[in-house]
Amino acid sequence: MVTPLANDVWWYDLSGTNAFLVDDDTLTLVDAGMGFHASELIGGLRAAGFELRDLDRILLTHFDMDHVGGLGAFDGTEVTIHVGAADAPLVTGERKPPLSNHKGLIQRLGGPLVSAPDNPVEPVEDGDTVGTFTVYETPGHTPGHVCYVSESLSTAFLGDLVRESGGRLEPSPWVVSYDTAAVERSLRSLVERAPAFEVAAMGHGVPFKREGSRRLADVVTTL
Length: 223
Ligand SMILES: [Zn+2]
Hints:
Bound molecules: zinc ion
InterPro entries: Metallo-B-lactamas, NDM-1-like, RibonucZ/Hydroxyglut_hydro
Domain Metallo-beta-lactamase: 16-204
Protein name: MBL fold metallo-hydrolase
Organism: Haloarcula salinisoli
Strand content: 25-35%
Pfam family, one: Lactamase_B
């Protein structure tokens, strides 16, 4: 159900997409899978030794159906959802993805699989802190994509800025990105600004338990 990546960090290997659980004194879910992952999300909490009522917050790396689809599992709880400011109106349903961008079109097609959550949605911006995590705006895959880095947990949640393939990290490809030039700028900026971390936890592929920041820096050398 869930696999430990480090002390107080767990990986949900959902079919085709990842979510994570972190206990930095506040129990936090990172991303929420698809709608049909709801029972796995709740089951993973129990497998890690918690109950649904223990969950305090959800950090979303971005708005995409495979990261927000399972939010409905937390309707009726007190959980606060944090998401990058530019993606927040898409999560709340106040705005629809633009038809003018190929990725926006993909998001529109996934619309029926996504519903606005009941919980409060808190937009986050570059430099904000949530618990032990610092927010890094990393637009490109989506306009409001953010990464969350905790120096004390030596862990980075990288969302879909990069994904693992064949044991390496690679940047978000064109077909699923709003803007690949922005992906590259975001990658360079994150590598320059973020502290060193061991655990690199991405939205897709197998997370790395060691040398996460070094592996991320390696991606920049290939751009
Ligand atoms: Zn994704």
